[in-house]
Amino acid sequence: MRGIENSVAKYFGEYFIHAALQQGFMPHTFPLDGQDRDVGADYLFSDSTNFALIEFKSYEDDIASEKKKPRRRTLCQLLPITIGMQNLHDRCHFIGWLGGNGTAIFNIYRKEVCNRRVFDDHNLPAGALVSSRQPAKDFTTGFLEGHNSLDFGEFETYLEWLMKDTSGSDSGSDSGSISVVAMTDENECILKEFNSLKEIHQWMQQKLEMKMGGPAPN
């Protein structure tokens, strides 16, 4: 089958933005481009307050390709033995793909990838935890309710650990070290690069303040 990973990401992103706007949020989706090697995700999603990382695949069978990434094996090995990180991971780091019923399916990254069907490691579970999978609608609802996402402080803590300890990224020496590009003027297609998670968060909070006419929630 042909790869449709980019299409899954594109159309879920559009759905996420539509659903979030309908509920009064100011959502954003940020492609992580080449940083996916260090972060273990293709996109950063946010409702302007909370954050999540999502790795996209075309189909379920493509999840096994994660075995080619040594940094992901390290992530799987460190999560159970690093205090607090598995809990943060479970609330913000996901993998999604096109399911057989035509909807995008999501699962917590480690519950889909950190197993012996992907990595040859007898310390890992035998297979994926299917019971924690969610269709796109339920996943999005959980994100907006704060179950499938982390606030800025928690996410910054997880991201720094993810990049420094599991990926050995030099850029991970600074907390919130990812860089993204966002459109700051839709009328002129003006783009701006943000060089840290803190910059991204501050920009989104400023947009919220402008919308609400007062200080945005932290």
Key traits:
218 residues, alpha+beta, 7-stranded mixed sheet, two-stranded antiparallel sheet, 8 helices, globular
Give the proportion of residues in helices. Answer: 25-40%
Q: Biggest sheet, in brief?
A: 7 strands, mixed
Q: What class, by secondary structure content?
A: alpha+beta
- Counted up, domains total 1
Q: How many angstroms does the end-to-end distance come to? A: 44 Å
* Total number of strands: 9
Number of helices: 8
Task: Note the beta-strand portion.
Answer: 15-25%
Tell me the Rg in angstroms: 17 Å
Runs in which pLDDT lies below 50 for 5 or more consecutive residues are 171-176
Shape: globular
What is the helix/strand order?
HEHEEHHEEHEHEHEEH
What average pLDDT do the residues reach? 92
Could you outline the blueprint of secondary structure elements for this entry?
Elements: H1 5-22, E1 28-31, H2 36-39, E2 43-46, E3 50-56, H3 70-78, H4 85-92, E4 93-98, E5 104-108, H5 109-113, E6 134-135, H6 136-144, E7 150-151, H7 152-166, E8 180-185, E9 190-194, H8 197-212
Parallel strand pairs: 3-4
Antiparallel strand pairs: 1-2, 2-3, 3-7, 4-5, 5-6, 8-9
Helix pairs in contact: 1-6, 4-7
